[in-house]
Specification:
With about 475 residues, the protein is mostly helical. About 75% of the residues lie in helices and about 0% in strands. InterPro entries: MFS_dom, MFS_sugar_transport-like, MFS_trans_sf.
Amino acid sequence: MENVPGKSLQNYIDETPPRPLSAMQWRIWAAAAMGKFFEGIVVFTTGVALPLIEKDFGLSSDLKGSVAAASLFGILIGASLFGNLADRLGRKLVFVVEMMLFSLFIALTAVAWSPGTLIFFLFCVGISLGADYPTAHLVVSEAIPSRYRGRMVLSAFSFQSLGSLGGVLLGLAILDIDPQIQSWHWMYGILVIPGILVTLLRMTLPESSHWLMARERWGEANCSASLLLKRPVRISALPQSGQKDGKQRKKNFLDLFSPRYFRATILTAVPWFLQDLSTYGIGIFTPTILATLFTQSSPDLITQDLNATAGASVIDIFLVVGFLVSIPLVDIMGRISLQIIGFIGCAVGLSIAALSTNVPPTHELKTLLIFGGFMIFNFMNNLGPNAMTYVLAGEVFPTEIRGAGAGFAASFAKVGAVITAFFFPVLQQQIGTNNLLYCLAVAAMLGALITFIFRIETNGKTLDDVGQGQRSNLA
């Protein structure tokens, strides 16, 4: 079967050798998974560290929101900027450089000496994490057999939730070992060495053969594919999407808004934006909400933060559970069904949590409603929209603009994350926690509706099939 003229790259990748995935394919997956782990741990560590930082620097409510939103705003910028660069300069280069930047700026965050430097360094950390949104998806999806693509991309992305839980547990451990206001510095500093190790791992990976083919670098594509699959490969120079009569029109960022790809752009960007409104608002401020609801009677800030963080760690376990359930279902039920079901479940969970604000603080029903609502929200969110928006964004565009499409969707989504991270504390005071939660529930239902209207199901299709037939690949 080797070296057969006319065989495409995807044919080689989709073949079933004695072992379905090579060691290099697993290495690529691991390198991508660790990037998502760092994102989760940084964002949620900030939620744990925020009360300490507020006390340490004497932050106003505006500056507190800025600290919470800094890394998310950086993700917004980094996803579009580096997604486009991944299409122009290559997947591997961006994949390595972004982790170098992460290691540098997380170290600087750990030694930040003022609110301004902390916000700036967290913003730069966010830029590097934002770059990982499109590139981590691309390096996995372009290296994995079609029948495994959904679950492999999703399982790598699930490390975001492991990182989220890890951020909470890390905060707990450091507060237990060193119960001081300044202990927040260690919460960031401990990530420097893992960041350097992942950088070194990414340097050992081959370039994406799909990207090399799109650049018509056939010899390099053959070498890269052979290294990926651990067997000889000779790819046929078959026409790519958008190619006619041997001439290919180069696509650019503006093609995302052309009639051919506009549906895909709406599907990937708008529901993700609506999902991030609640995901990051609830995720970052869960310890703060719990501290407000249950631990205000304690005069000790460290005790408040410890108790609230312990409660948040219980709730965040359901982030991981949601992903564990979604991974085997993504290639069975499909992306669209899970996203719609998940959005509806998120709305139910947020509504239940909102009801808790009408119950007296000492009543046991209050604890049941707030914890139960957040657990349902976390589970359904990672079963559906938090997982599926990421998977879809890297699948529905052709290779030439796949990075730009996935990057734009992630950036647009992070507008929602920044909005809630910055305004959540203010809105919580002005309109109340219950009204804020009800507003987020409405946003979740709107996400389900838009997903249904603009649906494009990618389950069971190769990346080439999806990229070439946007108008016909409708669910």
